[in-house]
Amino acid sequence: xxxxxxxxxxxxxxxxxxxxxxxxxxxxxxxxxxxxxxxxxxxxxxxxxxxxxxxxxxxxxxxxxxxxxxxxxxxxxxxxxxxxxxxxxxxxxxxxxxxxxxxxxxxxxxxxxxxxxxxxxxxxxxxxxxxxxxxxxxxxxxxxxxxxxxxxxxxxxxxxxxxxxxxxxxxxxxxxxxxxxxxxxxxxxxxxxxxxxxxxx
Length: 201
Fold this sequence. Notes:
By secondary structure, this protein is mainly alpha-helical. It has 5 helices and 2 strands, in the order H-E-H-H-H-E-H. Helix 2 crosses helix 4 (89-143) and helix 4 crosses helix 5.
């Protein structure tokens, strides 16, 4: 699922004035450049992993319902294909109407569920992202960074980066130190819930 990082990117842009202010006060201009994959950093934190698992659990029943609906549509279409010469015209018409009705319902529910998942994930991104910007701001100021680019943002395309300037894992480590979660509740990252593909017509 596509996770938008616009708000986080804007927050990173807000980091630049504070770096300039720090430069003016401290004297020599910082020269270091860093790169962070903000999306990976957010989802890589213990808090991010825990929240992603909660989202997976929250939306699992909807995904199961959609999968059941899709299977019923495919069963109806299969009966239409295999019974093209044996089913009565009335039965074929009934099956076709049912498949059409379910297909429309499936498409509508899929879109609604996808929108809800996107909103929930965006809330997660914003919640952790705001705190991560604070961690990144302190790290950048203390480390003498002139600029930190977000490699996960389409607004800052990066053609090449040396591994030595990627600070993603370091920011994850610092974030987990600043905002720890209970070890018993931290769970491994699971794939984000995906809407099943539309049934073949």
